[in-house]
TrEMBL record:
Any GO molecular function: ligase activity
SUPFAM superfamilies in UniProt: MurCD N-terminal domain, MurD-like peptide ligases, catalytic domain, MurD-like peptide ligases, peptide-binding domain
Cytoplasm among keywords: no
Top-rank taxon: Bacteria
Gene3D superfamilies: Mur ligase, C-terminal domain (3.90.190.20), Mur-like, catalytic domain (3.40.1190.10), NAD(P)-binding Rossmann-like Domain (3.40.50.720)
Name recorded for this polypeptide: UDP-N-acetylmuramate--L-alanyl-gamma-D-glutamyl-meso-2,6-diaminoheptandioate ligase
Top class in the EC scheme: ligase
Pathway participation: Cell wall biogenesis; peptidoglycan recycling
Family indicated by similarity: Belongs to the MurCDEF family. Mpl subfamily.
Length: 458
């Protein structure tokens, strides 16, 4: 079958393209921005890419158009597909019907930690020669790629996103995946651009729960009122609890060591460089899911002790004069708070944390979580916020007023060069600069590192 993918350079759709190619299909695609690294990865796999959405792409005459959720009405190619009555479907639906139906799907859902937890789970299975298939919204160095498929293998780990499927299917992506093992990491309000309130997201999670078979397993934290409400609307699947003294429990022994218990019995220790409560809980969820497919907790602990982390999750980008610069994919106040608290636990009282924040996600831009940001940044010694004055990333709220409670511990800049200069001038040896954004942030990481290098080489 020849499929043509609209929006192919997104993380999910690019991964889907690799999976379709591995499944034996001819794959082509288009995007408004055909750019590395995804474009390079796709072209290396023999996937032809077209820049833009010109209507004449219908002349390719694929058997099926697969539509990414970046595509909306008014897109010239999409309008031509609709006008000519050509066959089309969404990426999640195609994946569910053509690939996942024959797999034991291990889905990782939740507001936070999906990429980290699914990477940990896939690594546990990979480490113990289970050769999992996977589609993850990030790249773990241990796995090398974000997506992989071999029809001879039966386990499929997928990052199960609650964002909507396509312009013609407003259900969450994850309702198409039909998991047998489902991790529900947490549930908070997010995606203010498509969900009116938390109750709307709870409904989508309930729809996911309705698809999990009675012989499957739901893995969830003990304390989550929102998940309680979602499951109280109907649950037909056994539930295993995390962070529960009588279920799965993980205790931080020291900054680099976590002890794992199950049913009040010690199971093993993880020795790693990752920090924070969020990584402890992500690891626990991955261990519980791996246990459901036959990997012992002790084996999982061994695998995670060799886990290197994933890109853009407190990824160290460089060090200059004992100043460490990190890149972190921050999209929500809870994630910001957990990341900074984890770093604070690892460093001495004499070392400072400098947060450099771009509130870029749709939820952040719309201001739904703005009031929570000062509290989320409490562990930072100083916060530099970039508030774009105009353009698609401009904020709908007053950053100066929002960060006023932090007083002299926060400054707001509308000019990226001025922000870089201020961060470089403020930094001192043994600082930890954490750059937080869910986008490229104008290459600010390299600009700060270059500025520091210039400052301290003079």
């Amino acid at each position: 079958m020849h499929i043509h993918i609209l929006g192919i350079c997104g993380t999910f759709m690019g991964g889907l393209a690799l999976i379709a190619r591995a499944a034996g299909h001819r794959v082509t695609g288009c995007d408004a921005g055909v750019y590395p690294p995804m474009s390079t990865q796709l072209q290396e796999q023999g996937i032809d890419l077209i820049e833009g959405y010109d209507a004449d792409q219908v002349q390719l005459k694929p058997d099926l158009f697969v539509i990414g959720n970046v595509v909306s009405r008014g897109n010239p190619l999409m309008e031509a597909i609709l006008d000519q009555g050509l066959p089309y479907t969404s990426g999640p639906q195609w994946l569910g019907e053509n690939i996942l139906r024959s797999q034991h799907v291990l889905a990782v859902a939740g507001t936070h930690g999906k990429t980290s937890t699914s990477s940990m789970l896939a690594w546990i299975l990979e480490y113990h020669q289970r050769q999992p298939n996977f589609l993850i919204g990030g790249v773990a160095p241990d796995l090398g790629v974000s997506a992989r498929f071999d029809a001879k293998q039966s386990l499929f780990v997928i990052e199960a996103d609650e964002y909507d499927t396509a312009f013609f299917d407003k259900r969450s992506k994850f309702v198409h995946y039909r998991p047998r093992t489902a991790i529900l990491n947490n549930l908070e309000f997010d995606h203010a651009d498509i969900f009116a309130d938390l109750a709307a997201i709870e409904t989508q999670f309930h729809h996911l729960v309705r698809t999990i078979p009675s012989h499957g397993l739901i893995i969830r934290p003990q304390d989550s009122p929102a998940l309680d409400r979602a499951l109280e609307r109907g649950c037909w699947t056994p539930v295993s609890y995390l962070d529960s003294p009588t279920g799965w429990y993980a205790e931080q022994i020291d900054p680099q060591s976590v002890r794992v218990d199950f049913n009040q019995q010690p199971q093993g220790h993880i020795h790693w460089h990752l920090s924070g409560e969020h990584n402890r809980l992500n690891a626990l969820a991955a261990i519980a899911a791996a246990h459901h497919v036959g990997i012992s907790p002790q084996q999982s602990c061994e695998a995670l002790s060799h886990f290197q982390g994933i890109k853009r999750r407190m990824e160290l980008r460089g060090t200059v004069n004992h100043i460490r610069v990190y890149d972190d994919f921050a999209h929500h106040p809870t994630a910001i708070a957990l990341t900074l608290a984890g770093l604070r636990q690892q460093i001495t009282d004499q070392e400072r944390i400098i947060a450099v924040l771009e509130p870029r996600s749709n939820t952040m831009k719309l201001g739904a979580m703005a009031a929570r940001l000062p509290g989320a940044l409490a562990d930072a010694d100083h916060t530099f916020c970039y508030s774009e004055s105009q353009g698609k990333h401009a904020l709908n709220w007053d950053a100066h007023a929002t960060f006023a409670p932090l007083g002299s511990k926060a400054t707001v800049y509308q000019d990226l060069n001025q922000l870089v200069q201020a961060v470089v001038a403020h930094a001192q040896p043994h600082d930890h600069i954490v750059i937080m954004s869910n986008g490229s942030f104008g290459g600010v990481h390299d600009h700060i590192l270059n500025g520091l290098d210039h400052r301290f080489s003079e």
